[in-house]
Design a protein that fits this description.
homodimer; alpha/beta; 6-phosphogluconate dehydrogenase C-terminal fold; 9 strands; 2 domains; about 300 residues; six-stranded parallel beta sheet
């Protein structure tokens, strides 16, 4: 399907997210053509084989000359390095948006650029993903019923903002707005902290003297709890580095609550433990009910261990 | 199906685990009849309505007079209180086994009882469960392809041990043996620590000033990570109290590894973060591969956030 309102999309960094944006935007008819650049030529070839993209280009200026909207979908630190080059060549482009999990660092990079360039940049973050990564994992429905947070600046061009909004709606995501600071603090709590805890748990058990038997006797609860520890190490390294302040605050807050629970265990304070567990269960049950009602996601398998 | 090798089973505490043992043992033909006692008469009535049990009795002595094998399936601390009464009436019973997630506390209770009583007791722990609980959640296949750890004492009667082993094999579980100390240390690492971390994370976020938006913007990764925080608060209070020493050691070991990761974040040490994340991912990926190959469990949905 191609219409008067369809656009040529450029993807910079063809992984799970960039590939899924391409598939979703083309399935909806919003994108008439998808052109991609990636530092890895094999990935681009794979994207063409899979039909995720129409065309691959060898450099960013070539990409910028042929598209209306650009989606920067590399890991965060690579994005910081690429953004100035992308915006420098964005004269013929109507919107540059990104998908990074941390918004402060790209905002800071954009702030150093000329107004007419940075005004085309709409920072964004789809709250969706997978522990699988790479273009082979891309899916047209990855963002459906998920939220995308846009964190525009005061001087972002209205047309650029409208295009970023429309792109994400075309993927069937729900678009919401937030300040950079709120985004980075909230994501530190809901996503970045849990990832660090999951990595820390697996790290702890991997170094235990009993490590072999520990992994042999772990079960479904452990599998689910640590699923996010199978995420891309480079992406999460970058997130930890670029959202450092908010993440440190989240880790420290968690550390205080864990210390309180530890004291209750040490003191044999069953009443305090039961109350904390009961409150946490109530909060988590309510969250899941709302999440599953909104997204239509099925409950997970229920094996604990 | 009823055979010469089928037994009358008594269930003490009719919840997810007791109910699932009943269903599995009867489905296989190992149990010819299932009789249950629970402190809650409504639960017993529900168990009869659901067809999980054949008969409910009003007290433990009545139960003990009518069965060959008894499965103690209450939360851990209730089990400690009931075990002496069960064993005191076990003269006509060939095996008393249990399902508690901590083995040290019941071992200590048994050690105070006369030899001829405690020799009939085979401590056991099926590494299977669910965040759902209660007899309504019981399933005949809960233990299939899962492990059950038995931790017999030196003077456990061979016949009692053989019956406990056979009961669990009838549920299609794989039976393995371990010392009480090893069991409690390994389960502290693989199960009790993750539960405490999940409860602590939800507790942390529930008390954050931004709690409403935090839960609104949490996604699939958070849901999976916190699934075990929806587990039964009383059961987990008891586990935390009865496996205190091993759990404190596991919490402290985790705390040291988390502190190391925190330092790497604070110092902006990307190389250290990436290495830790990479190693953790490798360990976790290997665990999942083996777990899924063994149990035939399907991979989970893969939405992260």
């Amino acid at each position: 399907m191609q219409s008067a309102d369809s656009f040529r999309i450029g993807i910079v960094g063809l992984g799970l997210i960039g590939g899924s944006v391409a598939l979703a935007a083309r399935r909806s008819g919003w994108a008439s053509r998808v052109i991609a650049w990636d530092q890895n030529a094999d990935v681009l070839a794979r994207g063409r084989t899979l039909g995720v993209i129409d065309e691959a280009v060898a450099d960013i200026p070539t990409l910028m000359a042929q598209v209306d909207v650009v989606v920067l979908a590399t890991p965060t630190r690579a994005g910081e390095q690429l953004l100035p080059d992308i915006l420098a060549h964005s004269g013929g482009v109507r919107c540059v948006t990104d998908v990074a999990s941390v918004k402060g660092s790209l905002r800071d990079v954009a702030a150093t650029l000329p107004h007419e360039q940075r005004a085309r940049f709409v920072p964004g973050h789809p709250i969706a993903g997978s522990e699988r990564h790479g273009v082979d994992a891309a899916r047209a429905d990855l963002f459906a019923a998920h939220r995308v947070i846009l964190t525009p600046a005061d001087d972002t061009e209205p047309e650029a903002l409208a295009l970023a909004h429309a792109l994400w709606e075309a993927t069937e995501a729900e678009v919401v707005y937030m300040s950079v600071e709120d985004h980075d603090a909230i994501l530190a709590a809901t996503s970045h902290l849990p990832h660090v805890l999951a990595y820390a748990l697996v790290d702890t058990l991997s170094h235990a003297p009993e490590r072999e038997r520990i992994f042999r006797f772990a079960a479904g609860g452990f599998r689910d709890f640590t699923r996010i520890a199978s995420s891309d190490p480079v992406m999460w390294r970058d997130i930890a580095l670029t959202n450092r302040e908010a993440l440190l605050e989240a880790i420290d807050s968690f550390g205080r609550h864990l210390a309180t629970l530890r004291e209750a265990v040490a003191a044999g304070d069953g009443a305090a433990l039961e109350q904390t567990f009961r409150d946490a269960k109530a909060s988590r049950d309510q969250f899941v009910q709302e999440f599953e009602a909104r997204t239509g996601k099925r409950p997970l398998s229920s094996d604990v261990g």
